[in-house]
Every structure is written in C-alpha cells, then in structure tokens.
Amino acid sequence: MSALLTHRLALLAEAPHLPLLNQCLHGIERECLRVDARGQLAMTPHPAALGSALTHPQITTDYSEALLEFITGTDSDPNNTLAELEAIHRFTYAKLGNEFLWSPSMPCPLPSEADIPIAEYGCSNIGRLKHVYRQGLALRYGKTMQCIAGIHYNFSLPEALWPVLQADDGDAGPIQDYRSTRYIGVIRNFRRYSWLLMYLFGASPALDAGFLRGREHQLETLDADTLYLPYATSLRMSDLGYQNNAQAGLTPCYDNLDSYTESLFRAVSTPYAPYEAMGTKDAAGNWQQLNTNVLQIENEYYSNIRPKRVTATGERPLQALRARGIQYIEVRCLDINPFLPLGIDASEAHFLDAFLLFCALDDSPCLAEGECGTATDNFLKVVKEGRRPGLELQRCGENVQLSDWAGQLLDQIAQVAALLDRSHGDARHTLALAEQRAKVADSSLTPSARVLAELRRHGESFSQFALRQTQAHADYFRSQPPSRAELEQFEAAAQQSLERQAAMEAEDELDFDSFVVEYQRSLSL
C-alpha cells in the first residue's frame, strides 16, 4: 500500500474526520427495455400513467421510446437509494399493464432498425431537440446499439471532507479547483483499475444472435439464437458495435479539468466530414441530426466514467463544469445483473463505495505516455476474456496475472472498507469485499459465469433465459404493489410532469431552427 494512501487513511481515521465518511452521496440510474409478454420490444408509446418523459424527475426514457430510465435522488446511505429505486419499479409495474421490464443489459430480440421507435418528448423546443439528438445517434451509430441498457452509479465525497484533504495537501488555491483536481485524479485511477469492476460485476457474456444484424464478428455460437464468448464478462462494454471513426480518436485528457473540457469543447465544435456529407436535414427538409460535428452534444461521448455537475435550467454540462467545477462522478460501465430484481444490490453498492474512495485517496499521477492505451487494452481484454484461467494484464510495462493484481488491489481496498465500516459502525463494506474476494478465487461465482451456467443447465437461449428472469422479477414487484400513499405520491408527480411539459410547449416563442442555433451558440458565449 502506498505511503500516501496509508497517510490519508490515518488522517480520516482521526475522531473529528471519521464521521464525515458517513456523508458520501449516492444516486443510481437504471435503464431497461419495455417488452411484451413474448419478450419482444414494446412498440407502444411511453405510458402516460408514468408521466412525461421530458420533465419527470424519476421516470424518463433514454434512447428508444421503449427504453425506460429510472433515476433516484441522492442519499448518504445506498440502502435508501436502492429502496427508492425499488419504489420506482413497483409503481412502474403498477402502470405497465401486460408489459414487462427486460432484466439484462443486452436487449431482447429487436425488430428491424427502421421499426425501433426513437423516444418522443413532445413539441416543445427542448423536447424536439432531445428527439433530433436521438435521430442523430441513429444516423451515426444505428439504432440497435442504442437499445443496450446499463446502470449508472453516481458518487460524491462529502463537501466537508475537501477542506480537510486540501489543508493536508498544503494546497492554498480555491476549494473548487482543488475538488475538481482531485475528482480528475479519481477518474485517472478509475481508468487504471476499472477492469476489476468488469471482472466482478460484468453480466453480459452472451447476446441474442440477431443483435449483430449479420455483421462480421468474432463471437462463438452457443445455440441457433445465442452468440457468446466463453470467458467474456461484459460484451456490452466491448468494442462490438461502436465502430465510429469520429469518436475513435477522441480520448479526453484527464490531466486536469481544463484539458478535459477543452477536448470535449473541440469535439462538439469541430465538423466531421462524413457527417457534413449527411447534413443536418434530409432531402425533405426534416431534421436528422443537431449538427455535423464530431459530437452533437457532450453526452454523445461514450465513456466509462464522467465528471458531472448538476446543471441549471438551459445550462449545458460543459458550461456547468467550467463555471462551478466537478460535483460528483458518474460510473457508467456497470452491467445490469439479471439475477437481481433491481439489477444491483447493496453488496455491489458498498463495494463500489470502497473502490471509489480508494481511487480518491490513493496517489493518482497523470497517465504517462502509453498508460492511457494500456488501461483501455486491459479493460477490453477483461470484458472479452476476463475469466480465462491465467489471464495476464499489463502493469507498468510488465505482464501480471489478473488474479494476482486483483488480490493486491482488494488488499488495499480492504483498508478503505475497514475505515468506512468504522465510520458506519458495522461491517457492510468488509462483507461486500469478502464477496468479491470469493469471485477472484472462483470465477464461477461471477455474474457472467452464472449466466452461461444457467443457459447450459436449462438448455436455454439467451432470450429465453432473459425472459424467464424478466417474468420472475415482474412477479417479485407485482406481489408487493405500492401502498396507497406511495401510489398517490407517484401519480401526483406524474400529473405534475405532464402539466410542466404542457406549460413548456405553451411558453416557446422561438421557432425550432432558431432555437437550435441559439443552443449551439451557447457554448461559445
């Protein structure tokens, strides 16, 4: 364990500082496809009973009209966050009729590309902008890839902790700059070590054969309807589908916040010739993408982790980061665990807290020349063959067995978990870490191995297994519907969101073309 990590753990173990570790904040976003009773993509509109996908704070859609996204608030206890997520699921199932929420990350058998419905957000300018952005995604990457679902884990350190760390580091600059610098350091360490999360929590080693639409691939055939890789952990996070030349050369620099925002600013401001050839409108004059730049907007950049800041109304993410610095980080590489009704459980959340706090407290030098590429290579190697016996990764220019490196990392994270447990007065983080040690010792315990074992044991295709889990989880949620008070609260929120959307549509004064011009111009102001 590094001397710096040892020192910082000792600092936080001091009586005045230890309670601060109870104040880390957590939030979860869970995506899932709506499907019919046969496990086919639901072609129905977003249910009005769930409210407006544009303005509801907890229930929205991601890419497709059928791709729901559930968003919790923030809480210092991830158990409360999970309880909120469960309440959202229960309410949704109370309004879904004969539809279901698809359990895994990889999608159900999909209709033709043309028939996958893009999310609709009404006729307000901002609602149309969100729809056109998604049309641009379809144009650039295809619709199929956009139907993959995942879990995003939002995490922040307590605001009261930053002055303690800053004083200990002898930093006399503005606290906003110090906080942003340290969060960028978290991201660098996450880049170094996130392969471990894919081994431990990857849950997509197989997919429906139709997903690849006849494209060339290196997957193996499990049965007539299922493709897989025998040692894969997360095909969702592999390079199967994002064959995009525009983003291929876009690796934002994580030296500091300024270099990160500048690299994204260039991407959302720089035209890309193939997109210019397509144009922003089709032959009939209908919008088909917001612009012809490398990225239409900041969120188009596909990354495993993002620095984030809550935005004000009308404010773009880059503007918020530039003005007020990083507020929290969003972990985006987590698969949905198809064995869990919520796709994530408390044990995973507690381990993630210890892992992210380790990334925050350990030394995090800038990524040296070649290290960024090595981190990417290690990550892709684990998502494709992470359970291969004797698999070796690259560390500091040398080969190291995944199992050895994982054990060493877990030994360091164990010290952080122990400190978190002292702060909370229980053993939740140590117990969660013990579960992960067991997976390193026995790869058959990993979610990815369990998925393949289930397919073989039942003689099922991926989609048959997924539908079975989907129906089991539906029974779980429907067996305990929301209480009357919960139902009334959610119904009121749904109605308020519909009213807010109607008000936004009535308030618009600019025509849409002018609105897009103003939106594009806002970043350079």
From TrEMBL:
One of its GO terms (cellular component) is cytosol. GO terms for molecular function: ATP binding; glutamate-cysteine ligase activity; metal ion binding. It comes from the Bacteria. GO terms for biological process: glutathione biosynthetic process. InterPro entries: Gln_synth/guanido_kin_cat_dom, Glu_cys_ligase, Glut_cys_ligase. Pfam families: Glu_cys_ligase (PF04262). It catalyses: L-cysteine + L-glutamate + ATP = gamma-L-glutamyl-L-cysteine + ADP + phosphate + H(+). The keyword Magnesium does not apply. Residues 10-382 form the Glutamate--cysteine ligase domain. Signal peptide: none annotated. Its EC number is 6.3.2.2. Keywords: ATP-binding, Glutathione biosynthesis, Ligase, Nucleotide-binding. Pathway: Sulfur metabolism; glutathione biosynthesis; glutathione from L-cysteine and L-glutamate: step 1/2. The keyword Metal-binding does not apply. PANTHER family: GLUTAMATE--CYSTEINE LIGASE. Belongs to the glutamate--cysteine ligase type 1 family. Type 1 subfamily. This is Glutamate--cysteine ligase. It comes from Stutzerimonas stutzeri. The gene is gshA.
